[in-house]
Amino acid sequence: MNFNLKIWRQKNSSTPGKFVDYSVKDIAEDTSFLEMLDILNEELIAKNEEPVAFDHDCREGICGMCSLHISGEPHGPKRKVTACQLFMRSFKDGESITVEPWRAEPFPVIKDCIVDRSAFDRIIQAGGFVSASTGSAPDGNAIPIPKKDADLAMDAASCIGCGACVAACKNSSAMLFVAAKVSHLAHLPQGKVERKERVLNMVAQMDKEGFGSCSNTYACEAECPKGISVAHIGFLNKEYLKASLS
Amino acid sequence: MVLDAKIPEGPIEKKWYNHKFNLKLVNPANRRKHRIIVVGTGLAGGAAAASLGEMGYEVVAFAYQDSARRAHSIAAQGGINAAKNYRNDGDSVYRLFYDTVKGGDYRAREANVYRLAELSVNIIDQCVAQGVPFAREYSGYLDNRSFGGAQVSRTFYARGQTGQQLLLGAYSALARQVGLGTVKMNARHEVLDIVVIDGRARGVIVRDMVTGEIERHSGDAVVLATGGYGNAYYLSTNAKGCNTTAIWRAYKRGAFFGNPCFVQIHPTCIPVSGDHQSKLTLMSESLRNDGRVWVPMKKDDPRKPNDIPEEERDYYLERRYPAFGNLVPRDVASRAAKLECDNGRGVGASKMAVYLDFADAIKRQGKAKIEEKYGNLFDMYQEITDENPYEVPMRIYPAVHYTMGGLWVDYNLMTTLPGLFAAGEANFSDHGANRLGASALMQGLADGYFVLPSTLSGYIGGTDLPKVSTDAPEFAEAEKDVRDKIDRLMSVKGDKSVDYFHKHLGKILWDKVGMGRNEAGLKEAISEIRELREDFWKNVRVLGDTNELNQSLEKAGRVADFFELAELIAIDALHRRESCGGHFREESQTEDNEAKRDDENFSYVAAWEFKGLNEQPELHKEELTFEYCKPSQRSYK
Ligand SMILES: Cc1cc2nc3c(=O)[nH]c(=O)nc-3n(C[C@H](O)[C@H](O)[C@H](O)COP(=O)(O)OP(=O)(O)OC[C@H]3O[C@@H](n4cnc5c(N)ncnc54)[C@H](O)[C@@H]3O)c2cc1C
Ligand code: SF4
Ligand code: FES
Predict the structure, then answer these.
(1) CATH of domain A117-245
(2) Which residue CA neighbors atom 6 of ligand 2 most closely?
(3) Is there a single domain that holds both residue B62 and residue B146?
(4) Mutate which of A9, A55, A63 to disrupt the B interface (most B C-beta within 10 Å)?
């Protein structure tokens, strides 16, 4: 398969970037999107041109490192997969594809398609945990947890922190990411003690980082590679309201 | 130098208890005066950094990813072992200990393994308290599954994402400490050298991967928890960035390297499909709970799997190992798959694959149940292969997965370089020559949450550690080494990419230091690795600048270290003229192709000391004694 690529090139955070056209030929359809970029990069190196920088690590859809905006959609056209799990068979032969970094103010570009997502870490640092210091835990079976709650918590906890939800949102809102963590911990007895401070502190940090507000367009859910449901946002709003009132 | 493993006195079940009592303590008020450097924030490093921070130490942590939440531990799928005996099926600390020593083919240290089994139960408790959403039964109690090499059900799991959930647990504990100011987290920072002053590890040289700045950091102790080196083979199930750099630098600064040739090749991975392939994807061992492995009886059978009738299939694991069946340990399962393929019964286009079939399980339990247990794995398989494993059996083949070898450590997890500790996959400690499934997560967390907080305090409390300055000549010298290496890489300006060399290196290792090894092949491997390394330093092309983000430079530095390590892997494999666990020397096998150990000559840990590049490293032996698990020919029949 052959493809025409339009890729965002930006030397560093202080230099403006621009799209550059490339083409790749004879790509096997079971090549992953990132492998297609690897092939392009090998060709660039052979031509003495600097390869395209993009974040990646596990290439299994779980680390959340890959973060490419592909032809207008975070992680590309296929639902519920990350860019690293996207295969070229999902594209048409000869198709033109644009590749760019997440576009959101709280995620500044570092180079080419790599952005700085440390804002997410700071939101977790503000309250996305249970304060259970090592050594203080009772037996794991001391508190039974209804399977339904454990499953709900697990659904929310599947978030990989990739930031596609932010990139998908016209307001650059981080509500889905924050809601997933709040919901995960609030559904477990272990997380209930600190649930009020947690939601207040995390939301405050989210605002401080400059993420926008949620206007219920649900683009986040549609683009989330892990299928995190917007129902968690509803849950977050309730948690927040309850915590602010008391 | 005589290796002293510092195994405490007393009966095995009392060793850790007594040792903790005998270790020196550091008064809570004094702890913040001690800075500890933690390199790597996966399960082992993340757990250690969080726990040490909670105790009150000043912790400085580093990771090469953009967040601690993305360490390679995140990718672990299947589960974590613990001797809880919640199933009432006869499990105990002693049985987990026994299974692990036996699974490791009697090449691990008994005292360490016992401690690991003991701590396994605390790990589950700790993780539950953090909010790790383990799978539960309808009663609300924790669920378990079985893993290879065990006849009890002791594996705790969170769907097919156990590593993710455990790492997010450790990450959240770490995030809490960062918020409280006890831990300073440096993401996108790569440690490139260890600084030794007066014979002790007192600091690290680090590259800020965004600005390219080279930094000096000093401390009272250094912990390396940088994961495994399976990526030396290029294709592996490891994340792309996994590397040996930090432990390799430590080796060159005096820490011994233990059992480098003990590399685990995992039986159930998605087979290689073409040259463009950049990594291999694991299909969790937990699938062998319900999947049945088979090949057609006939060689080169052209039929589709579902057209091959039952009586023309060979469920070779069930046939050869009736007691453990599809749940034999990994080394055994991998070799059996290779044997079938070498004998012409492999399947798929490349003929280098065997089937893993769920038809019976789906018939018995229903599709919904299988989906609940393995849904995400099945989806991933379908995504990659474009085949539906609910309808067609999976095709699988072994791939490099885990490294049992690593820095040699004593019972305190301290290397032979005083003040330098190694934890998690980066050390050699607990898995002998073969790791059992669901035991790496257990070991990483045991090291990080429970062992290091005690033993590191013991070191700091019991050692006179004068203040050191980053202006010390040792820092300047180490920094110069790092800068020189970077300059050398940038100035070659050759005509071949880093990946070109890495792929070739990987092929040499896979062909000659892979699942089957022999003397002639290993000798060839050593000279081929050397030649290729020379070629690398003459012809590699690294573009871009050093003072900004530069992924080619990062890769080049890692591959340069892999070259040196690869040679040591082959040297170790050559010297160990026995088969044990994942190390299969073709010269040493039984009539029915099982690995044949040689306890008389090789019942030791091989700890290698660096003697200079192109010099033969010096072998030190830690003799292993087995007071509790008497070595026997490992049988899973
Ligand atoms: C696909 C897969 C599935 C697995 N499934 C299971 C399972 O089900 N059960 C099980 O028990 N085990 C499993 N394992 C094994 C297990 O996941 C690993 O052995 C374990 O997670 C390693 O943890 P760690 O903390 O030692 O290292 P890692 O998680 O690899 O962390 C390494 C850390 O070191 C950092 N680092 C590395 N080099 C440097 C450097 N030079 N400078 C700075 N930082 C550095 C990284 O950024 C990272 O933070 C699996 C492994 C794989 C590959
Ligand atoms: S909610 Fe979904 S899109 Fe947002 S960070 Fe989590 S996994 Fe990514
Ligand atoms: S590289 Fe890890 S999720 Fe894509």
Answers:
(1) 1.10.1060.10
(2) A159
(3) yes
(4) A63
Beta pairing partners, B62:
B39, B186
Q: Domain segments of chain A: what residues?
A: 3-110, 117-245
Q: How far is B282 from chain A (nearest CA, A)?
A: 9
Q: How far apart are CA B74 and CA B133, in angstroms?
A: 15
| CA-wise closest residue to A165 among A120, A195, A129 | A120
pLDDT digits (tens, 9 = 90+) for B48-60: 999 999 999 999 9
**Helix B551-575 and helix B245-252, axial crossing angle in degrees, nearest 10:** 60
Asked whether the predicted pLDDT for residue B1 surpasses 80, the reply is no
CA distance A8 to chain B (A): 16
Which residues in chain A touch residue B236, judged by CB atoms under 8 angstroms apart?
none
Give the distance between the most distant pair of CA atoms in chain B. Answer: 74
Number of structural domains in chain B: 3
Q: Which domain holds residue B319?
A: 265-400
Tokens 């590749």, located at residue: A99
Q: Does residue A120 come out as left (phi exceeding 0), alpha (psi in the -120 to 50 range) or beta?
A: alpha
CA distance B566 to B533: 10
Residue indicated by tokens 């180079």: A111
Do residues B160 and B376 lie in contact, with contact meaning Cβ atoms separated by under 8 Å? Answer: yes
Residue ranges of E strands in chain A: 3-9, 18-24, 69-70, 73-74, 96-100, 109-111, 114-115
| Residue B91 lies inside a defined structural domain of this protein | yes
Given CATH 3.10.20.30, say whether it is the number of domain A3-110. yes
Residue-wise pLDDT for B109-129, tens only, equals: 999 999 999 999 999 999 999
Same domain, B484 and B541: yes
Contact B510, B235 (CB under 8 A): yes
Same domain, B57 and B180: yes
Q: Are residues B538 and B595 in the same domain?
A: yes
Q: Say yes or no: B231 and B379 in one domain.
A: no
Q: pLDDT band at residue B238, thresholds of 50, 70 and 90?
A: very high
Could you tell me which of B157, B151, B153, B13 has the C-alpha nearest to residue B86? B153
Does B135 sit within 8 Å of A150, measured CB to CB?
Answer: yes
Atom of ligand 3 nearest to the CA of A225: 3
Residues B493, B515: one domain? yes
Asked if residue B28 lies in contact with residue B56, where contact means CB atoms within 8 angstroms, the answer is yes
How far apart (Å, rounded) are the C-alpha atoms in residues B469 and B438?
42
ipTM, 2 decimals?
Answer: 0.98
Q: Determine, yes or no, domain membership for B409.
A: yes
List CB contacts (< 8 A) between A31 and chain B: 274, 276
Asked if B123 contacts B449 with a C-beta cutoff of 8 angstroms, the reply is yes
